[in-house]
Here is the input.
Amino acid sequence: MKLTEINIILIGIVSLLGVGFYGLLITRNLIKVVMILQILVKAVVLAFVFSGKVSGNLGLGQSIAATVIVADTIVAVVGLALAVQVRRRFGTLDAPEISTLRG
Amino acid sequence: MERVEYGLLLAGAIICAYRAIVSKRILSSTIYLACISALISVVLFMLGATQVAVMELSVGAGLVTVLLVYALSVVGEDALDPSSVISKPLAIAVVAAVTLLLGWMIYPAIQFENLMGSVDLASVLWQQRVLDVWIQIVLIFSGVMGVLGLLSERTPGKAEGGHS
Amino acid sequence: MANIFILLIIGFPWLGALIVWLIGDARPKIQHTFAVAFSLLSGISSLILLAFINSQPAIDLALGTSFGSLTFIPDGLAVSLTVIATVVGSLAVLFSVDYMRGEAQLGRYYFMVLFFIGAMAGLVLSGNLLFTFFFWEITALCSYGLISFYNDDPKAVAGGIKALIITQVGGVGLLAGALISYASLGSFQISELLGRADTIPTAALSFIAFSFLIAAAAKSAQFPFHTWLPDAMEAPTPISALIHAATMVNAGIYLLARFYPAFESVPGWKTAVILVGVTSALITAFMALTATDLKRALAYSTVSQLGYMVYAIGAGGVLASQFHLFSHAVFKALLFLTAGSVIHAVGTRDMRRMGGLGAKVPFARNVFIIGALALAGIPIFNGFWSKELILEVGLEHSPMWAYALMLLGAGLTAFYTFRMTWMVFFGTPRETLHIHPIGLAMKISLAVLSIGTFTTWLLFGGLNGILSTSLPFHEIEAESTLEMIKAVSFAPATWFALLVVTLGLGLFFAFGRKFALSESPAWLSTLTESSFGFEPVNRFVVSLVSNGAEKLRATQTGQLNWNILAIVGALLVVLAALVWGGAL
Here is the structure.
């Protein structure tokens, strides 16, 4: 099997996704969760641009990637605001501890 | 030898991602995240998507890093890093299975059409995907509203309404 | 035109459900008014729909290739059942105005009732198997919600859960059959299944046929699922009349009638259907003999009569079963509502404590006697004609042992019916009970139903007409009312049946009265108390489900990481399925 650029990039995308999922499974800190979501989204952006390039419609790939970046930034912003509020209210950022807390 | 460059950049990204996840201090994770952003941005540039590469760099390495640092400063750094809820071997097993399956499905080479005469971003964005632009505006607006609503609350203690 | 009326038939009750619920419990009079108004509107629309019967879909919404089209077909079978559901439904709602006066949470009650009426209409009108299943599940939900309406009474809640679990077994059967049919034919449309049933391989067709039989048996409380209906009598009486006598339990009969042409060639299916019908009819007739709770006795008799309808379908008489369904809906609703008014008046359901009430509530006594005569199969009343038609079909097309047992059932029916009537209304009062008078709304609904009991058999010609002309796959001959009267009056089956019924009556008058008041013989009561051995099975199934659900609660940890593990696990399953299926 040839190892062209395509394969390398595809493997890269899938591995980045895998590392991101592993992180989501492992981490307990809410801010880290927001960060790992960012990692996942970078893999997705790469995937969109890459598919655009491969199918010849780079403009479409780029515009979708741009939309995804904007959307995901908003998610990060709101997620961090939520994390700050959680810290203020519950005093901890540990996800398992928060689930067992009674408000 | 583009293959080597791509390979190195992506390998670097993956290593940075792993370090970001397992590092004990959130500040170091933030730095690693910025590195990932930079590397991915270079890959995007090499693929030909220049505008998105710039966006990715400025947003990922700039905006998100600043946001995270700000949030950290407000929240304060928690020094402890307890063990995870799900056992690591189980997590590795599941993720490895997913990654391998996905990789195996995607691996066969696709025809690389080196079309340089593709439509550029600006005309596509403003004509074909105008709806996307409107959605982005709405998203930004709602994000701002959400943050304002969330962060404008006073300190805890007065509200009993913290329902879990 | 038909499409508008179909939308109205389903839309009015559903809209009414929402409105009555939103009005709030602070204004019960308005709630009552709106509920009656919306159900009446739906009833009127379905009566108007009679003029537009057609075997072509009236509403046809394409929903993409996975789900086929959402079609509603106003053919004879569907519209006759819709008329029954909505008209009896509006009478039950009218009855509820008096029965539920002063009860709490009327909004919830009327919401469930109206939601149910719309869903029942949708179930029979639907031409797409998936949507039939969808409406089927809605009726199951409403039935559960209404049985456990008095949710601080543990018996009611237990009865509701029992009914839900058992009818869900039927729902699984329906879904499994629908999916296999889709896999074999590529379409969810009912007309496809009926028309191309012979192209399906025999194994798959048998699977579909028997799953549908299980679904029908579970929904209509037939053997071996006959244990949930008597416990469902904890529901308020108008609900027992509507859901558990006149409409929801007919959904199973509808299923069998609708798909009869597709399944009649499956080896063993017709025999299985006859067996289910005969067994249900007989064992529940025995259980009605020893029942002491008035509503339970009526519940047993419902299952018994449904057994007759199932038996008729097994013998090939779809028309006879639908005719009996029609008569049964009317007289059983009448009996239940009257029983309800009596129970409401005296405050107890135990027949051993009633007695001699005839003098105190003469109106109730009269209409109950009318219903009882129809149930027993006395000539002139609608029950007589339809039951005789079934027995005639059975004599010609079913095995002799089945016919003989059903004949025995007819005699038992007469016996227990008279026992019930006598225990409640005649004889010397065994207890002095304080009687509330029966309200006007109750009296109106009872009066309408009793007139129906006298006269609905005259509509046989009309029923026959709409069924024979609008069901392209069933072979039903056209016969007018007059021809039917002549056929039934002169058939040997009728004479046998009348003989057996007279025998039953004679036995009752000879020593039935003593039998009714004394304790039943021990062997009989152990059998009937445990529903012929099925009650323990039932309890086992219910406890299995409840314990299983409790154990599965451990998976819902509510923790972030576990939830993400579930998501990634699901992704793994999807990918594995794709790889195994050969995609990419």
In short: Residues 157-164 of chain B have pLDDT under 50 and may be disordered. Chain B touches chain A through 92 residues (CB under 8 Å).
